[in-house]
Write a structure and sequence with these properties.
The chain is of the alpha/beta class. Helices cover about 45% and strands about 20% of the residues. The protein has one domain (about 10-290). The longest helix is centred in the first third of the chain and has 24 residues, at about 70-90.
Amino acid sequence: MRSEKLNFLQRLTLETLWIAAKAFAVMPYWFKYHVVENLVFLLIYHCFRYRRGVVDTNLRNAFPQKGERERAVIRRRFYRTLSEIFVDTINMAHMSERKVRSVLRVRDLEAHRQAVAGRDWIAMSSHFGCWEYSCYWAAYEPSQLLVAVYHPLRSKVVEQLYRRLRNSAYATTVAMKESLRFYLRNRERGIDGRNLVMGLISDQNPPRRPDSRWFRFLEQDTIFFDGGEKLALRCHLPVYFVRMERVKRGCYEMSFERIYDGEEQVAEHEITERYVRRLEAMIVEHPELWMWSHRRWKHKRRQHAGC
């Protein structure tokens, strides 16, 4: 995929940010996670009150059964998570294999490795914990390459910075609109002889279409991207739900739960429904780890007369 050209000032800004990120990434753990993270939390939670209204509305609508005090606890813990994710993301600017294994563990590794050996497959992820670390799956299975499907950002500089952070020996990035074409072009040989893992963050807010399917999710009518389901059915790819569990600051454990085997006959939207139910259960269990600052419910379902 061809990169957007940057002018001189944009290139200078990008290189400055990249050098700063690299320098930050090699700093001691205690400084990154006990000094910088705490400072970020102070700024976004107490000073700037970053998207506080969006977070409060989302929590109130998702957990109407909880009291104000319970939701306030979730809100504070969420901002802690958000501060940590900021540090985690910049930490990706310098990531050796040894460091990868210190920030990401894989549960039931051998069982999953055997289940997907020699196959392409789809990983349906979410904005839960440090989702960016899921790019490092291939550090545990070198015969596979993660293809991180993403939405390009408006800022050319930030877009290129994120691509540098995400692209590595373990993963490559592909814009969502190009993902199907990319997979069909590379599925026969893979990339460098490696099988492809199509990584989709499937809990984003998709454009509303006349035929959009609505799911009941966290007490609200919600639409989801269905690209993962369509790709799975068209190419007979198994689909796995990616579960992330926080071990400690800057460290996660990842596991995979199969929701489609690539051959089963399923009803329309069934694969997406299985993803939604697992995501909802994971959020209810650890609500502070989901990205409540996203405007997830911008679309409202129209109520028809007589229904």
